[in-house]
Amino acid sequence: MFASHMWRPWSPVASPAHPLTLVRGEGNRVRDTEGVWYLDGIAGALNASCGHGHPRLIEAAQRQMARLAHYDLVNASHPAAERITERLAALLPGDLGQTLLVNSGSEATEAAVRIALEYWRNVGAPRDRVVTFAAGYHGSTALALHLSGLPYTRSGWADLFPVHRVALPGSARSARTAADAAALAARFAEAFAAGPPPAAVVVEPLLNVGGGIVLPPGLLARIRALCDQYGTLLVVDEVFCGFGRTGRMFGFDHDGVTPDIVTMSKGISSGYVPLGAVTTTDAIKQSFQAEPLLRGLRYGHTTGGHAVAAAVASAVLDVVDEEGLVANAATRGATLLDRLGPLLAYPDVVDVRGLGLVVTVETVDPAVASAVVLGARDRGLLVRQQGACVMVIPPLTLTGDETAQLADTLLAAFDQVCRPAGDV
Ligand code: PMP
To answer: Which cofactor names does the annotation list (predicted)?
Structure first.
């Protein structure tokens, strides 16, 4: 109804109005204007980890909204922000205890990279080089986009600071062995040695926009070791993976790694209200006493750490804990991966991979992925197209029955579009 006045993000301007207008969400299902219910394999905007319409989250938002919607965190404070930052300090490993609250994943990246670069100035040994994955994605503000080497994200503007983007070998899609981890770590070692010591490495524990690429176990630990060797700060982008998505609370937990800086968004508020966060060590925060103009971080947004968002985030942590959503993501994800395994026999399917509730079927062509996504929608299932990949990213509250329904529906959609090898 409003589509003709809406400039949709990351979409061709000439595309027709989106045929699906969603008006309601309950649990793991959403309903459109025609009254059709869909199983939500996209978790809203990849963030509704607790499902839709969760009474605990609604109540937390309503209570905070009625008490105090928001207040300035520059000159004052509010208990909702104090509580969530305290809880994040308890949840995160090591000395990760100082959290800046922002509104989105991009802002979290923006702040994290600035903090990392300025840290080196603060300690009197400036560094500006950043190492990252070429297929990584960390947000769409200028600084965050500058990190990525994905063709979509390149603006052609002047570089902001030197970035060394490590390419994945083609076989990295399902690279799951210790040898794969060693081979990829060698590429990072080359990147470290290819210039002055890097200020920071910025990595996702699983490459989301890059195509749901699961990293080989042990790679993050090897990158941590390189960072220790060069004194480089390890920034882990948990915007997508954080709060249970991959079947562990954080993506870096799979490798038992402690980063120096962590960025979060999406699952932190289950997408009910915008929130992002950057958590650093106390030493990094304290270095800002040497900042010449403010003796602090010259960064912040009016609604960063919005009280309603902060209150919802604390309720999300309760729900994730009480409903066992991290373990549920691991169990349902393993089942889903298993059920979708037969797709590997289809000539149009390149790979089936996943970790927790991020399951990706890579096809040979974006047109195949697009047809499967539309076919699934016709069958009452929403899944996401990412280039040639079909990605399944449901709420972490997915039940056993819904897992089976999701797998059966997606298999049926693939059957309609392409057939297994030898099947005539
Ligand atoms: N980092 C990662 C890993 C992401 O997946 C995203 C969003 N897709 C972002 C950063 C950017 O977050 P936002 O869209 O909230 O700015």
So the answer is: pyridoxal 5'-phosphate
